[in-house]
Write a structure and sequence with these properties.
Layout (H helix, E strand, L loop, with lengths): L3 E5 L3 H12 L3 E5 L50 H14 L6 E2 L4 E6 L5 E5 L2 E5 L1 E4 L6 E2 L6 E3 L2 E4 L13 E5 L3 H13 L2 E5 L6 E2 L2 E2 L2 E2 H6 L13 H8 L21 E2 L3 H6 L4 E3 L2 E6 L1 E4 L4 E3 L2 E4 L3 E2 L32 E3 L10 H19 L5 H15 L16 H14 L3
Parallel strand pairs: 1-2, 1-7, 2-3, 7-23, 9-18, 10-21, 11-12, 11-21, 12-17, 13-16
Antiparallel strand pairs: 4-5, 5-6, 8-22, 14-15, 18-19, 19-20
Length: about 425
């Protein structure tokens, strides 16, 4: 089918999408603003949030941690480093012959709909008209930094700028935020900083990376069994048995079910807390010169504040008011991929979930390719397409979500997989 498809971004979602479009027989152009593929996994890319100690949160053996037909090699550890993930993505692009499709150092300045239903992509020195575009520009580039009351004489910066533990040598460091990057960076600070503090607003669950020698996500995904005398009645009881109550380490009690939030996969944080190398703190009240005042009444002198406070999935190249964020950090889309009204624009890589995502990007890309082909062939009516996506979207979303901007649109991995399967069945994939 003679269709031209524009893919914006050559990170994991962009590469999966490029393969799906190429395999569908579409003329495919991938626009990448950096010099290499990989998105955030390229630690040399300007603005990446990657740091030296970063590893995959999901294990390499989980079905959703890799692209179909391209498992991680056997000599890679269970939780690959950022460099190994980047190598994997480059190898995938090479083996699938995607490099010829990619225009590097081509930053998009504007995308606008055309009267014929297509889209025009404009950048510095180029312009392309496409029948459809798939936005795969990523969600971890536009850092969100909180505002503080008072003034601070030290340094305040976002974790996006952090790279190496030596940056903390002989300093008193406060890490603000308890997502996976915040916890990783706190553990780095525990090893090199003079003092390390971790500020968090609410309670979190901390998951071990291994259960009985198996990666935790693989253990539960494949229904591996513990001995009867060890089997807890539910996942919460399992965590209580394996890890213990976070309150014993001076942390607030979680206010949600273990997998209602992005899981914190870290074996070291509780050990550092237990050894006193990280001091837990609550929410910040104000700043006073060299000191940070906490709402609990505690007062600590620190040299530097690292804000591991998340990102907003900004896409400034799209028309104003095209996206609705509903007070969240990611756009409100059906299945995190389909715009509720705009035509011939799709998204991949916007999924916020509690498991591996490379496989989700891959399957979603194939679904988008099939939908584009069917709509072009007029074998799928717009009303049928809308009904199909709405039904899948209902399957994808789960109850018990956390009331925070990050979790607007959050989906449970198993529910999302069920929704993808529903779409695949409807589309005969």
């Amino acid at each position: 089918m003679e269709l031209k498809i524009g893919v914006i971004g050559a990170g994991p979602a962009g590469l999966a999408t490029a393969r799906a479009m190429k395999d569908a027989g579409f003329e495919t152009i991938v626009f990448e603003r950096n010099r290499d593929v990989g998105g955030i996994w390229d630690i040399e890319a300007p603005g990446t949030p990657m740091y030296r100690s970063a590893h995959f949160i999901s294990s390499k053996g989980h079905d959703m941690s890799h692209f179909a037909g391209h498992p991680f090699s056997t000599d890679i550890p269970e939780y690959p480093s950022h460099a190994q993930v980047h190598d994997y993505l480059r190898s995938f692009a090479d083996l699938e012959d995607l490099y010829p499709l990619i225009r590097f150092e081509s930053e998009i300045e504007r995308c606008r709909p055309l009267e014929n239903g297509g889209w025009r992509i404009d950048g510095q020195g180029f312009s392309e008209d496409c029948d459809a575009i798939i936005v795969c520009s990523g969600t971890l580039w536009d850092a969100v930094t909180p505002e503080f009351e008072g003034s601070f004489s030290g340094m305040i910066r976002h974790s996006q700028t952090y790279r190496d533990p030596e940056e903390f040598r002989d300093k008193k460091i406060l890490i603000l935020g308890c997502g996976n990057s915040g916890v990783d960076i706190a553990c780095d600070a525990a090893r090199t900083a003079d003092k390390a503090y971790l500020s968090l607003r609410r309670g979190y669950w901390f998951l071990p990376k291994f259960v009985m020698g198996h990666p935790t996500d693989v253990f539960f995904a494949r229904n591996m069994k513990m001995p009867d005398w060890l089997s807890p009645p539910d996942f919460t009881a399992f965590l209580a048995m394996m890890v213990g109550n976070p309150k014993r380490f001076g942390l607030p009690a979680p206010d949600h079910e273990p997998l209602a939030s992005h899981p914190i996969m870290n074996n070291d944080i509780l050990q550092h807390l237990g050894h006193g190398r990280i001091q837990p703190r609550g929410d910040v009240a104000c700043l006073e010169g060299e000191s940070v005042c906490f709402k609990s009444g505690e007062l600590d002198e620190v040299d530097e504040i690292i804000c591991a406070t998340g990102y907003r999935a900004t896409m400034s190249f799209l028309p104003d008011n095209l996206l609705n964020y509903q007070e969240g950090t990611r756009p409100s889309l059906k299945m995190s991929a389909f715009h509720p009204s705009a035509q011939n624009i799709y998204f991949n890589g916007m999924i916020e979930t509690n498991g591996g995502v490379f496989g989700l990007f891959d399957r979603l890309a194939k679904i988008i390719a099939r939908l584009i082909a069917q709509k072009a062939a007029k074998s799928c009516r717009d009303s049928a397409f809308t009904e199909m996506v709405n039904e899948a979207d209902l399957k994808a979303h789960t109850t018990g979500k956390i009331n925070s901007s990050r979790h607007v649109g959050y989906v449970d991995n198993a529910n999302y997989l069920s929704a993808l399967k529903h779409l695949e069945e409807q589309l005969n994939i």
